[in-house]
Amino acid sequence: MAIAALGALQRSGVRCPDDVSIIAWDDSLICRHTAPRLSALSHDVVAFGAHAARRLFEVLGGAQPAGHLDSTPSLIVRESMGPARRG
Questions:
Q1: I need a labelling partner for 8 at 20 to 30 A (CA). Which of 43, 47, 56, 81 fits?
Q2: Is residue 87 part of a domain?
Q3: Which residues of 9-37 are buried (b: 16+ CB within 10 A; e: fewer)?
Q4: Who's near 65: CB < 8 A, 6+ residues apart?
């Protein structure tokens, strides 16, 4: 979605990161090859999947479904993120 947004903004004349910053939800190899390179959140998808599977088996075993914060992603800053505006 971030890559699609980048293309749509470029076609409409909106400059990234001068006018708007874009951050991808999940880092991937392609984020490093766009122009500008996309900033992204880096998630531990293996740990997330393992946790989801454990929770599924717990619920199937009778546990109550519950929310859980698995991990906090880290922000990888690249060229698609500009400075915060003041004012």
A1: 43
A2: no
A3: beeeeeebeeeeebbbeebeeebeebebb
A4: 55, 59
- Is position 23 within any domain? yes
Q: Tens digit of pLDDT per residue, the chain (87 long)?
A: 999 999 999 999 999 999 999 999 989 999 999 999 999 999 888 888 888 899 999 999 999 988 877 778 899 999 999 988 776
Q: 0.90 exceeded by the pTM?
A: no
What's the structural domain count of the chain? 1
| 28 found inside a domain | yes
